[in-house]
Amino acid sequence: MNDEGILSLFWERKQEALSEADRRYGGYCRAVSYRILRNHEDAEECVNDAYLRAWNAIPPERPERLAVYLGKITRNLSLDRLRKKNAQKRGAGELPLVLSELSECLPSGESAEDSLEEKELTALLDRFLGKLPSESRIIFIRRYWYLSSIREIAASLGFGESRVKMSLLRARGELRNLLEKEGVTL
Q1: How far apart (Å, rounded) are the C-alpha atoms in residues 160 and 141?
Q2: Would you give per-residue pLDDT tens digits along the chain (186 residues)?
């Protein structure tokens, strides 16, 4: 079943929407959650919670891309769960490390609200990612969206770790420059 069919089931409040969403996107959502939590049971719970959250939000929301919508809910729930647990033990330490790397170039929550609305900041980040070369974009997203370790990224792409680190360093610098140019207070 395609996204429109699944969304129609949500709008009609048919529980079949949940099983169809799981059939189509369950593997993707579980992979997103497992990458963050590194625990199958916790990942499964987050995916189920994501379906419940989608059930409660659709309607009135009607997402344009269901995979992205479910993936984002799953990711946020997984990050929340990880924060509640000991990140060093459960997440192989990647979340605190990733956040510290990005803190150099992203604004604090207060500054971002003062400088740009959330949608404007999102659009700015989308433009930034769109201008990155494909290789750099893949590395950046794997690191900062999927929370992959540098070693995992390097191994999956067949690169040395130093190449991945340099790509991330350059990308963060470009992002910092773009944000400063756009007047975002860092």
Answers
A1: 18
A2: 899 999 999 999 999 999 999 999 999 999 999 988 889 999 999 999 999 999 999 988 889 899 999 999 999 999 888 878 754 454 455 666 666 677 666 655 544 444 345 667 777 888 898 999 999 999 998 888 888 889 989 999 999 999 999 999 999 999 888 888 887 766
Angle subtended at Cα 140 by Cα 156 and Cα 185, rounded to the nearest 5 degrees: 165
13-29 as b/e, with b when 16 or more CB fall inside 10 Å? eeeebbebbbebbbeeb
Helix or strand holding residue 173 (H, E): helix 161-181
Q: Which two tokens stand for residue 165?
A: 């680190």
CA distance 118 to 112: 8
Give the DSSP letter string of 54-70. Answer: HHHHTTT---S-HHHHH
For residue 19, the number of C-alpha atoms closer than 13 Å in the C-beta half-sphere is 3
